[in-house]
Predict the 3D structure of the following.
Amino acid sequence: MKITKFFALLCAAASLSIAGCEPIDDNTNGNGNGNENTGGENNGENNGENNGGDNTESTLVLSAKQTVVTGEAIVFTVLENDVDVTNELDENGNKRAKIFNKADYKEVSNPYMPEEDGTYEFYAVYGTSISKTIGVKVVPAIPNLPEDSEPDNLSFNHRVLLVDHTGTKCGYCPKMMAAIKEVVNNNAYHDKFYEAMSHSYNSDDPAWSRAAEVIKMHYHSLIEGYPTATFNFYHPIPAGYYASDIKSQIDALWKAEGADVGVTAAAAGGNTVVVVKAGVKAKVTGDYSITAWLLEDNIYAPQAGTTNEEFYTHNNAVRNIASSEPITGFSLGTIEAGKSTTYDMTMDIVSPEWKGENMKVLVIVSALNESKRYEIANMAICPVNGSVGYDYKR
């Protein structure tokens, strides 16, 4: 995929219904009106007019590409009264237009090679004129997918998605956590599903995110209280918070014969963004869509309803999602049996409290079913700054 196409992407269930905690009122951020990925078309030039300048009367204009990838130099252009003075030299052979990094007010070279990802701010000085400040976003380069070791193999292990709608102030939620742990530790079920913990009960929860609110809105009618577990994107089948109930829902959705598609992925991330390249290979011809969820492990927060500190460390917490409208993601179109395609996505690391070293990416591929809605076909979990190949049946 060309890099311009990648930057264009920057914009953008059986239910375990349990009589437990009701949602509390302090969760005021659940408007469900989008995810935290604030992308957009970022391959144009930054004209210095959209960042709010320090010197609004200046005739000096600094510009550069709004987004570059790690390893790509930032090239600046400086105009004074619409005249390009970028490379104008003084009597000593030095450039008269100086570029400064606003973070430390030190002069930088032009071109400038950033050392790591993040958002940088710059301004220019030319004589007595000072330009407005511009921002340049540096994102990780698109990672490479691992080589497909068996290109003719179309037999893939299948997994079901379990979403636990939970929160640290939910007194009944440890019951669901204990049930999920029991199923995870069961060798007969361990490889049949992935779990994502959607902390939407209380907004002061360290594992809460706006993305969890978007997910809650998708499952809206299925969540009558907390905890609630939902499976895949639909299938509203009520049950209780026991391991046996979770097993029965997985049994109803899991395909022993294998998944209709296989998923491979590679992810790269740093301080501000995670970039994902995913590959999809079809066993069954169909119309498919794709999305990604950013999950974080090792979030410490005391949990209501238990004194067992084992439940004070929260894993698989949803931090961001690649698409919220629709939550099922981006259309891949029709993929013929035996064929494959790739897709690139990004998710912002919104808060400095989120720890990139504890993050992983859940890539979800859905298929258009007879009811004309996308239902999960298969998934893969990929570590940030790592990759995962197709999971073939053995």
Remarks:
- The two ends are 32 Å apart (CA to CA).
- The domain at 3-39+143-388 is CATH 2.60.40.10 (Immunoglobulin-like).
- The helical segments are 3-8, 173-184, 210-218, 243-253.
- DSSP finds four helices and 25 strands in the chain.
